Amino acid sequence: MIAMTTGLVAIILIAAFTAIFVTTYLNQKSDNYEKLNQAEQLRITGGKVTFDEKSEDAMEINRIVTGAGVYFNMLVNKSGKPIMIDSALKLTKDQYNKAAKYAWKNQDGGVIKMNGREWQYVVAPAIANFDYGSSDQTNGENDETYLMRFLDITDSKKNLSSLAMTLIIVGIGLLLFFFLVIIFFTNRALHPVEEAWKKQKQFITDASHELKTPLSIISTNVDVLYSSQEETISEQIKWLNNISSGTKRMNGLVNKLLTVAKADNSFDQLTITNVQIDQLLTNALSNYETKFAEKKILINKNMAKVIVKTDEVLLQQLFDIFIDNASKYTNENGAFDVSVEAKGREGIITFRNTGDGITDEDLPKIFDRFYRTNEVRQKYEGSYGLGLSIAQGIADQLGGKIDVESTVNETTVFTIRLPLKKQFSKK
């Protein structure tokens, strides 16, 4: 993804900078062409201009035309010999003659290097109009003459080279900058995907491991039954009980996995209504009265009337998870405290139970799927490490959060915070 995005950015930069360079080059070329083909009228008044080819002297006029660039003109006869030089430059006659000779041999135009500069030139037919001071002495309209114009393009070529170098440096710098930006945002964008992928792999590994245990129990005891077929059912009741226990455990795990899958994909099925939390909790607690009574657990309720806008079914499931956990992990003759209150824009539900508690080392991991502390693995059967993970998923879907505090061998406190009037929108 980084390589593809960087490549796309590189193509865009190359295209943009190439367009800038080509546009500048064409504009400069057009500008030079206009300067080279700029029409001028040169009228020389007074003095005599000779067309004698034996003459070594040519008339020279020094002038500067604003906006025309650095240039010089030469008027040559039909043999290419300079008749007149229009120049404001300090060049020798030999240099002018050399330029005229080169241009006459290459009349299609081009570039000549002279005096450390580059000159682009054109050669075109011209009519020289020489005025000697009286109208009857005008001469030259029928004489075959040619105009050579030389334009200094050294600076313009240097500007093009400088522009190309600047674009290359800026392009490399921008590409490096965008590369770092792409890496940063790509890593941020892919981090959740990577985490989800890792969790999925871990989930499959853990689920396979959890299913392997009951399947192993069932398979082992079935093999024992096959090896003692002559015995009666009552004589093999031990092995059948083991099979039943393994089947129940596997069935419970499969149901939990289905609950996880349902929780992960139930956002679109949210049904938002006004729910009275204290009443919902009272009903949920009544379903576990027998379990709490068996362990002589004292239930303390301190619930204010609080109404939240949420999904009642999911909230009921969330409460069931924490109440069920309390019935399992609260010690005998212990206490389970439930409180409900409204603070600001939140409804706060607190579950507090006595018992073994959770160590600081285990506390950050308890919401991970299939995670169970060593004490839970050793003491409690029927625990799969999925309840709190499901609870966390439900809380996220309802726009809430769960906080946990615990003191080893004393208490565990779970605090659920739900928005009172959160507006949910389906994805």
Give an overview in words.
This protein has helices at 2-36, 93-105, 154-227, 237-264, 277-286, 289-294, 312-329, 374-379, 387-397; strands spanning 43-45, 59-61, 71-77, 82-87, 110-114, 117-126, 129-131, 145-152, 272-276, 298-303, 307-311, 335-343, 346-354, 401-407, 411-419. It is an alpha+beta fold. Among the domains are: 37-152, no CATH class; 269-419, Histidine kinase-like ATPase, C-terminal domain (Heat Shock Protein 90, 2-Layer Sandwich). Helix 5 (277-286) packs across helix 7 (312-329) and helix 7 (312-329) packs antiparallel against helix 9 (387-397). The longest helix has 74 residues, at 154-227. It starts with a helix and ends in an 8-residue tail after the last strand. The relative contact order is 0.08. Mean pLDDT is 80; it is low at 44-54 and 134-141.
Indicate the topology.
Blueprint: H1 2-36, E1 43-45, E2 59-61, E3 71-77, E4 82-87, H2 93-105, E5 110-114, E6 117-126, E7 129-131, E8 145-152, H3 154-227, H4 237-264, E9 272-276, H5 277-286, H6 289-294, E10 298-303, E11 307-311, H7 312-329, E12 335-343, E13 346-354, H8 374-379, H9 387-397, E14 401-407, E15 411-419
Parallel strand pairs: 1-7, 2-4, 10-12
Antiparallel strand pairs: 3-4, 3-8, 5-6, 6-8, 9-11, 12-13, 13-15, 14-15
Helix pairs in contact: 1-3, 3-4, 4-9, 5-7, 7-9
Catalytic activity: ATP + protein L-histidine = ADP + protein N-phospho-L-histidine
Pfam families: HATPase_c, HisKA
Subcellular location: Membrane
